[in-house]
């Protein structure tokens, strides 16, 4: 009789354990009220990639449009329309200097293509900042609502993290705590721009321009590289979105930092 | 008997549940879907990807002296010889060429897991196969091919591809080349319906630093379907005799000043080198560069033929050619 009770008890135990394990996702439905999800961490803490530090442009493409000022009337690569051609053919760098508009080619749609260095830092938990030594510009990326501002060369930028879908796809989520993302992208949308130049030789963009950028970091042979995909939408001067990708290599420190003012001619 | 039955039933229930989860995870790719037809957005280096760069245009290439010397000794007529017409471009042509990409997968027949990605061939580039099943690269003594041997792994939304065992090939569509010891790391990152392909080329013989080139692509299945195969290459006589070995002897390349004359770019920049990639180089050439008054050739524009007013007629002599030779 003792052996019979032992066997029965063990069978019951095995069955209960199985039922409890299989019904784990349903836990809480019949018991204590479910607790809401914890508040999301602030953007700085949630960053899936580290963008901070000093980065240097590595110019291997569009060299003669970036390292030197191309001649007037060179629109190669840019999907300009006839109106843009008209404006660009009237480019007068001396007039831009006189009017104090020498930073027209350093605006958000173009600044990442200007050879130089970036210094990326967190202003606070919700605001990321990019400073450039070329043209001494400052881009501010707001993860929360951006304050109202006048149009400017760098405009108003709204940032968000884009995270990869979890392995397993929709419906395949395993129970348990969510693992941290192994990678992700910073997406930045910029509007509220002053009119400027897509290229230093006067190819224009309008105040209606929207710039959508994706910032990715790849670790190549233990050296971080920043790859920025930029899409410029401007129905005023472009026949289609203008798409480029730009590479930066991370530097150990800021000893290469070399601030220089905007220039209309160089 | 009862305990045996209970244990068997419990274990069976456990096994069924585990198998279901495992099968689902393996069938779902860890990264975004890269398959489909991707059109090339040639908004960078359009001339270099289209008509082709100037013969001596090594701007931004981190050449050492050997790499530069090899490039300067190369005549493009070499690629017109019968034995080289169909030799195909190396894998970096996916970023330095003007064509789009057709990408598809080979999947495990049971689990559905991706075994390999395929990037379709074009008329002058071999099909690339990217093995995703964890296999090792061949030994160093294994034969090299035009496409090389590639393996890949996902990191978040980026497919990282390592390519070895490539034959010697070009890194720009002129005489600039890499050796057969070059290796590639390529990063494919998808954002919505756009993808960026970034290639890092390392060559212990001809480059002092990695050459990094990127390209943007647009998913466009309906209007821009890419073929998975290229037009077959049929070699024929293209003006170079079978006995000729087209080349330039040292110091004899007569195209050295084509780019400087066309765009006023100093010759030292045209000859490349790692320093030409960095912002500091602008200071070095600032005084030597005099911006041409206006664009005279390859100017782009709405019709692609130059958007400015017609240039003034040349002062005597034949007009300048419309395209680089």
Throw out a few tags for this protein.
heterodimer; A: nine-stranded mixed beta barrel; two-stranded antiparallel sheet; 5 helices; B: 325 residues; alpha+beta; 7 helices; 18% helix
In short:
The complex is a heterodimer of chains A (266) and B (325). Helices cover 16% and strands 29% of the residues of chain A. Chain A has helices at 2-22, 43-46, 63-66, 82-88, 93-98, and strands at residues 53-57, 117-124, 127-132, 138-142, 156-162, 185-191, 196-199, 203-205, 210-220, 223-233, 242-251.
Radius of gyration of chain A: 27 Å
The number of E-state strands of chain B comes to: 11
How would you characterize the largest beta sheet of chain B? 9 strands, mixed, barrel
Structural class of chain A: alpha+beta
**Strand runs of chain A, count:** 11
Low-confidence stretches of chain A: 25-29, 167-175
* Share in helix of chain A: 10-25%
Structural class of chain B: alpha+beta
Q: What percent of residues of chain A are in strands?
A: 25-35%
Radius of gyration of chain B: 25 Å
Count of individual helical segments of chain A: 5
